[in-house]
Write a structure and sequence with these properties.
The protein has 14 helices and two strands. About 20% of the residues are buried. This is G-protein coupled bile acid receptor 1.
């Protein structure tokens, strides 16, 4: 029996994906319009972030298809490939864009005076191509033959007597026999290579760059505090509160990074562990409600990362905030005029 025939499964996927997709899509559009309206933000770092927002927007659109990738469907070979390859390509491109944004900002912090000389700034079209073309090529490998698709008529007998008896029902049965599952599109070697060769290194690189940035910030904070102490000793003054404020800001930064990791990365890590376990265990575990919930929350939580980075920057949200403020003032002004007229 097809798991999609279960109305409870459809309702669960609908109630989980529709709110997340709506928030992701409209928030990305909000930030994209803010960057496009502010000419001061038209530079290479923000172009990389804009590419990440586009990938995140596409992730929000395809989010409703990701839980259904673990279910069986009655599709032919071409439609089955599209239903599995396209969401996989969008997710990989989102992951590659996320790594590129972290890498570009990492270079700006590690080498603030020479970051414009690195290849990501000098060869921006090439850098942008590296975050879209490799995911497309890898995700398209099942379309070029790396799949486990078996035609439904290959196991049938080709005797003349049997073909005469089944000729009347061959058209109807061929459609029913074509069951589309992830195991027919993605071989186990393909899945293991994607997880261990692409997803895991990308996550580790982001964690390593974030940890390195926090370590550099900690070292710079210690140097600043030492300079303040030396100045206070020369002037024979009591230690100021500025050092305490700097330490408090650094503590808030570490807490924000840790909270982001717990909220956005931990659900996805749990989802990946469940995926590998389900791949070894069978299809029943992948069609369970818990797996569907974790697939929605895991991918959805990762898609929130660009929104956190974008909404935390006032330059990205300032143009839209001004428009909203003008609309609110006009609406209030219209209400006041109506009250005066009454």
């Amino acid at each position: 029996m097809d798991p999609l025939d279960n109305p409870n499964t459809e309702k669960l996927i609908f109630y989980l994906t529709v709110p997340l997709s709506t928030i992701i899509i409209f928030s990305n559009l909000f930030i994209i319009i803010g960057i496009a309206c502010n000419r001061q933000l038209h530079n290479t770092p923000n172009y990389f972030f804009l590419s990440l927002l586009v990938a995140d927007l596409c992730t929000g659109i395809t989010l409703q298809f990701i839980p259904r990738m673990s279910l069986e469907r009655q599709l032919d070979f071409k439609h089955c490939l599209v239903m599995y390859i396209f969401p996989n390509f969008i997710f990989l491109s989102f992951l590659f864009n996320l790594v590129m944004v972290h890498y570009e900002r990492y270079l700006c912090i590690v080498s603030p005076l020479h970051h414009s000389q690195f290849w990501v700034h000098r060869c921006f079209p090439l850098a942008l191509l590296t975050v879209w073309l490799p995911p497309l090529l890898y995700a398209s490998l099942p379309a070029f033959g790396w799949n486990n698709w078996v035609e439904p008529n290959t196991n049938k007998s080709f005797d003349s007597n049997e073909t005469l008896l089944r000729s009347s029902t061959s058209r109807n049965s061929s459609k029913e026999d074509e069951v589309c599952t992830y195991k027919q599109v993605f071989p186990k070697a393909f899945i293991y290579l994607e997880v261990c060769g692409l997803v895991l290194p990308a996550m580790l690189s982001i964690v390593a760059m974030t940890g390195r940035v926090l370590w550099i910030a900690h070292k710079q904070l210690q140097n600043i505090c030492k300079l303040h102490r030396a100045v206070d000793r020369l002037q024979q003054q009591q230690p100021s509160d500025h050092e305490q404020q700097l330490n408090l800001r650094y503590a808030k930064c570490v807490a924000a990074v840790s909270l982001t990791f717990l909220v956005c990365w931990v659900p996805y890590i749990i989802f990946q562990l469940m995926s590998v376990t389900a791949l070894q265990g069978g299809e029943r575990s992948q069609s369970s409600s818990l797996y569907i919930i974790m697939s929605c929350t895991g991918i959805g939580s990762m898609a929130v990362i660009p929104l956190i980075l974008g909404l935390a920057n006032k330059q990205y949200t300032e143009p839209i905030s001004r428009v909203m403020l003008k609309l609110r003032n006009r609406w209030r002004g219209g209400q006041n005029n109506r009250d005066i007229a009454l």
